[in-house]
Design brief:
Low-confidence stretches: 126-130, 132-139
Distance between the termini: 35 Å
Number of helices: 6
Largest sheet: 5 strands, mixed
Mean pLDDT: 79
């Protein structure tokens, strides 16, 4: 199928190719990887559509979706903007995102767009996953990403430091960060997502 999706990227709507099968349940949105198309999910889509409405979309600049000359850049920002307007135009309800390779990165970017556009009070509390409940992707996404980013930075520092004493300090910081975050959250009566 194809549908014209209006976006702020160009005055012309983008003819966007997608496949939709099944009904009921929480919709599943399949996002293909780099240099691919909806055909990437030709075997998976029928299996998922037995219990859920399942969508697969060709991202902007890929597959059978139009590549318009009016779009200056097919950057990750343009791709996630197009995906947002596809979702808003045709699905417009909470979805389960499944992304392969570049599609996984696009799914994470899409989550941030949903948070900033669909939730009016985007704040530090939201980034850390403490509040409020996210309508599209669940409570634990930002909490997980926040911890992942912090721990990745500390792990990187651990690898580049050659001194054993500094490595011990970094190890202690990692352990203390994890403990402090949980303990501070409990003491301040924050509800940390547990699912």
């Amino acid at each position: 199928m194809s549908s014209d999706i209006a976006t702020p990227l160009t005055n012309q709507p983008v003819a966007t190719t997608y496949v939709k099968q099944g009904s009921g349940g929480t919709p599943i949105l399949l996002i293909h990887g780099f240099d691919s198309s909806v055909l990437e999910f030709r075997r998976l889509l029928p299996l998922l559509s037995g219990d859920n409405e399942t969508w697969a979309v060709d991202l902007l600049g890929f597959g059978f979706t139009d590549r318009l000359s009016g779009i200056a850049s097919y950057s990750p920002t343009a791709i996630k903007t197009h995906l947002y307007y596809f979702w808003k135009s045709l699905i417009n309800q909470p979805v389960i995102l499944v992304g392969a390779s570049m599609g996984g990165a696009t799914a994470i970017d899409f989550t941030f767009i949903i948070a900033t556009r669909e939730i009016p009070n985007f704040s530090w509390q939201l980034i850390t996953g403490l509040e409020p409940s996210l309508p599209i992707v669940g409570d634990s996404v930002f909490y997980f990403l926040f911890n992942l980013i912090c721990l990745t930075i500390l792990a990187f520092l651990y690898q580049i430091i050659k001194s054993h004493s500094f490595r011990r300090i970094i190890s202690c910081i990692i352990v203390l960060f994890c403990l402090f975050y949980f303990e501070a959250s409990c003491l301040l009566n924050f509800s940390i997502p547990d699912h």
